[in-house]
Structures are given as C-alpha cells and as structure tokens.
C-alpha cells in the first residue's frame, strides 16, 4: 500500500497517509461504506448529484463536530442537487447517536470502520491510528473529482468558503 509523508500533522506531529491519493480530474472511487442502519452504501449511488465527501477522524471530537454541523447547515441551503456525506471510521451506532444528539439532518454519515476501504481508496487513511485525515472531496454529477482539500493540520477546520465555491461552480 502506498505511503505518503509530510502532508499532514496532528497537533504539529507528522503523520503518514496510506492509500492512493485521489486528485482533481480522477474518477471518484466507487467505495462501499456502512450506513447508520448497517446497510451497505455505495458512493456510486450519488451519481447525478454533486457530492461533497467530508472525511473526518471522529465525530466525537470538537473540530469534526463543528465541521459536520457547518456542512449540515450549508447543505440545507444547497438544495437536492447536492449530497453531503461525512465519512469516518466511527462505528455506525456512534454516528447515529451523534447525529441524533447534534440534530444533524442534512448530512449523511457513513462508516469506514470495516475495511478502511474509503481511507485506502482516497488516500486518507492515517497509518497507525486507523483514522481518516480531514479532507474534502467535491465530485461532479458524472462522478469526477473536481476539488480536493486536504487539511494540513488535522485539528484545523477546512476552508468552508472554498469548498462551497467549488460546489456552486458545479450547479
């Protein structure tokens, strides 16, 4: 499995990413994830919509909580031509509990806990931690990645304005 270093840190400490990095212009990998009800959810099922994939380490951390709530608010303004999905290695039960407690309704949370296939397919699996790096992928209606934002410091929030600008360009 490919390893990449020097791209991200956690509280200033360098981390290694595993997997094959997805770049702008690449076809989005058709990874299968786990829904909150334990069903299999294929990312290809979002074909025909602009897809915002928000990869986070854990919903039970302050920055991931803030980020997912923010994307839920923004998703409510974007309409039904956009799907927003947050992916973490949290168990589906934890994701469901978090969504209920946070009142998040406009973001679908999906789990990569079984095989870390998303982390490997998108190149955001953190070696040794089995968590996902903070990264945003914007995929067009045809399944092509049009925007990637890998957040250098895992404890920092993404640049929401840049993500939203990328989404609006595709509508």
From TrEMBL:
- Under which EC number(s) is this enzyme classified? 1.11.1.24
Alphabetized UniProt keyword annotations: Antioxidant, Disulfide bond, Oxidoreductase, Peroxidase, Redox-active center
Q: What Pfam families does the annotation carry?
A: Redoxin
Q: Which residues form the signal peptide?
A: none
Catalysed reaction per UniProt? a hydroperoxide + [thioredoxin]-dithiol = an alcohol + [thioredoxin]-disulfide + H2O
Q: What class of enzyme is it?
A: oxidoreductase
Question: GO molecular function terms here?
Answer: thioredoxin peroxidase activity
InterPro entries this protein is in? Redoxin, Thioredoxin-like_sf, Thioredoxin_domain, TPX, Tpx_CS, Tpx_Peroxidase_subfamily
* Family designation: Belongs to the peroxiredoxin family. Tpx subfamily.
Task: Sum up the protein's function in the record's words.
Answer: Thiol-specific peroxidase that catalyzes the reduction of hydrogen peroxide and organic hydroperoxides to water and alcohols, respectively. Plays a role in cell protection against oxidative stress by detoxifying peroxides.
Output this protein's name.
Thiol peroxidase
Organism of provenance: Candidatus Glassbacteria bacterium GWA2_58_10
């Amino acid at each position: 499995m490919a390893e990449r270093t020097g791209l991200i840190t956690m509280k200033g400490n360098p981390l290694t990413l595993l997997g094959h990095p997805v770049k702008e212009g690449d076809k989005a990998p058709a990874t299968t994830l786990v829904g909150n009800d334990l069903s299999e959810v294929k990312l290809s099922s979002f074909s025909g919509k602009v897809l915002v994939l928000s990869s986070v380490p854990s919903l039970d951390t302050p920055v991931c909580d803030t980020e997912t709530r923010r994307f839920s608010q923004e998703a409510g303004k974007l309409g039904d031509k956009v799907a927003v999905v947050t992916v973490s290695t949290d168990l589906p039960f934890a994701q469901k509990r978090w969504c209920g407690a946070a009142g998040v309704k406009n973001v679908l949370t999906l789990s990569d806990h079984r095989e870390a296939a998303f982390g490997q397919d998108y190149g955001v699996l953190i070696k040794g931690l089995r968590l996902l790096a903070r990264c945003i992928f914007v995929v067009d209606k045809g399944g092509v990645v049009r925007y990637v934002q890998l957040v250098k410091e895992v404890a920092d929030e993404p640049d929401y304005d840049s993500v939203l600008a990328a989404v609006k360009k595709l509508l």
